[in-house]
Design a protein that fits this description.
This protein has 289 residues and is an alpha/beta fold. The chain is 37% helix and 13% strand. The chain has one domain: 3-Layer(aba) Sandwich (Rossmann fold), CATH 3.40.50. The chain binds NADP nicotinamide-adenine-dinucleotide phosphate.
């Protein structure tokens, strides 16, 4: 069998890495405390991102909240500070090519480093058969849902290395694990985000950066309002969720807190599905559905 690897391809480390930094110790009395950590959360002005930002802050992390509009971000940062936490708001478009350098700089300037990056901002601008999606919606979907997360990781990497490691959490979707009607392009982008998670997990392991994903099912936010707000579509959606309800944004937070903290020190490239059983029921008629 010929050796097909190019000379430039990095070797996988077969030997234990004695230089690898030790994982941060777990405080068993308070395993979710993030007191000395700095987190960035994109899409944090409302919905799942806001719940994640507020929970990371409640756990003690300083939180940089990111979204496109300063006026909707400021109340989130102000609310965290009013509750005794640390937070700043930075307006940035997660899909813009050079947006994240300024976000990373602001985090380091305000709080001295970066430990946790939650790529939560997402978009779904095309509804209908994927063959009808034009280049414009392809570009927007892939820029926000895939290239933005990649660029943000690249922008944070020097700060992660300076701290001896980091945690990246991608908010993907069960739509990246199984096709969903009318949102095929979104499904493709979330599947790409899950593979990006795995690729980065392998490539950044030597830097002690763990990269994981959370895949929510239906969550009651503005993003999914067209589904839960209309009786016919809500009934159809509930028919494929064994737990028979939509999630509250707060129910996505537990998975993120685990992946952001010291308990997940040996977890990388994983996808935590938080969907009320939806993925297991795919294609199966549910009793009473
Ligand atoms: N809701 C669900 O059922 C569900 C299920 C599975 C996965 N998800 C995923 O969960 C994530 C959050 O969704 P959500 O339901 O919480 O949505 P949401 O309530 O509509 O909130 C979206 C957030 O993202 C921000 N945002 C949107 N586009 C952005 C961009 N280009 N750059 C920066 N910020 C941007 C929005 O603020 P601005 O508009 O001010 O920028 C807002 O803060 C998304 O990745 C979504 O795909 C949602």
């Amino acid at each position: 069998m010929p050796d097909l690897r190019s000379a430039a391809e990095p070797e996988l480390h077969a030997e234990p890495n004695d230089q690898a930094p030790a994982p941060r110790a777990v405080n068993n009395a308070a395993p979710f405390v993030l007191a000395d950590r700095v987190a960035i959360v994109t899409g944090a002005s409302r919905g799942i991102g806001r719940a994640i930002a507020e929970s990371l802050a409640a756990a003690g992390a300083a939180v940089v909240v990111v979204g496109r509009r300063a006026e909707t971000l400021a109340p989130v940062a102000d609310g965290i500070v009013a509750s005794g936490g640390r937070s700043i708001a930075v307006a940035a478009n997660a899909g813009a090519p050079d947006a994240f350098a300024a976000v990373a700089e602001a985090a380091v300037a305000a709080f001295g480093g970066i430990d946790i990056l939650v790529n939560n901002a997402g978009t779904c601008p095309h509804y209908g058969p994927i063959v009808t999606a034009d280049d414009g919606v392809w570009d927007k979907t892939m820029d926000v849902n895939v290239r933005g997360p990649l660029r943000s990781v690249a922008a944070c990497l020097p700060a992660f290395r300076a701290r001896g490691g980091g945690k990246v959490i991608h908010v993907a979707s069960v739509a990246g694990l199984m096709p969903q009607p009318s949102v095929g392009l979104y499904c493709v982008s979330k599947a790409a985000l899950l593979m990006l998670t795995e690729v980065l997990a392998v490539e950044l392991a030597a830097d002690n950066v763990q990269v994981n994903a959370v895949a929510p099912g239906f969550v009651k936010t503005r993003f999914s309002q067209a589904i839960w707000d209309a009786p016919a579509s809500a009934t159809g959606a509930l028919a494929v969720i064994p737990q028979r309800r939509f999630a509250d944004p707060s129910e996505i937070v537990g998975a993120v807190l685990y992946l952001a903290g010291p308990l997940s020190s040996f977890t990388t490239g994983a996808t935590l599905v938080v969907d009320g059983g939806q993925r297991l029921a795919a294609g199966l008629p549910l009793a009473g559905g």
